[in-house]
Amino acid sequence: MIYLKKKPSGQGFGGKLFQGLITFLVYIFFRPKVIYADKTLKKRLKNMPCVFVANHRHHFDGAFCGAVLGRYKPWVLVTRKWFEKKKVGKMIALCRTIPINLEEADGEWFKTAEEIIDRGGTLLIFPEGGLSKDGNLGEFKPGAALLSAKKGVPIVPCANFGTYRFFIGMRQKLYVGEPIESDCPPDMRHSKYARELIAKAKTAVLEELDILENRYGKQVKNGEKAD
């Protein structure tokens, strides 16, 4: 069975309760540290329709970033295959999630995302479209930027940093960068402008990762600092 929410009509009590539990567990297990590029950014992002984008290294990223950015109530784009898993799919569907089919052309997620933006909501998208196999930042696909270009809302670049050490070791961190404004010229196609936007977003995430590596050390698989 596939558990899909066709419309972002909001969560019921059960969904909010489950999402709250996930957030609680994230803070207990991973002890998140959120770093804002500017001390005013935390408040400025409140009630601002936008598209958060972040690097993707681990299956925990969606739950972690969604929980840490919870004050902005982002809807997280999740590959459809997770919804096809009987138990996991049902739990994911309870949360603020949007399924996307990565195996073929899928316009449904974009329509749903537009509705969310129109209602003043936010999205969280991992533009690499999958996990990084070598830990390096992969190609950013333009979907998030196309949404930003078409709706005129900013992209907020975020760097997810750490190796998800339970209870002890380095805390998992999320660097939230300055919004990249979207103002597509009238004589430019949204698709072309989106390519420019997504390139800026990737550059910003790379710079944020450099900041975090210089401050906390390089990420390695075993969670320890590299020599």
**Which class best fits the helix and strand makeup?**
alpha/beta
Tell me, briefly, the overall form: globular
The gyration radius over C-alpha positions equals 17 Å
Note the main sheet. Answer: 7 strands, mixed
Helix content: 25-40%
Average pLDDT confidence is 90
The H/E string reads HEHEHEHHEHEHEEH
Overall tally of structural domains: 1
Distance between the termini: 47 Å
Number of DSSP strands? Answer: 7
Poorly predicted regions are 1-6, 222-227
Number of helices: 8
User: How much beta, percentage-wise?
Assistant: 5-15%
Strand order of the largest sheet: 1-7-6-2-5-3-4
Task: Provide key terms for this protein.
227 residues; alpha/beta; single chain; disordered N terminus; seven-stranded mixed sheet
What's the topology here?
Layout: H1 13-30, E1 33-36, H2 41-44, E2 50-54, H3 61-68, E3 74-79, H4 80-83, H5 86-94, E4 97-100, H6 108-118, E5 122-125, H7 143-151, E6 155-161, E7 173-176, H8 190-216
Parallel strand pairs: 1-7, 2-5, 2-6, 3-4, 3-5
Antiparallel strand pairs: 6-7
Helix pairs in contact: 1-3, 7-8
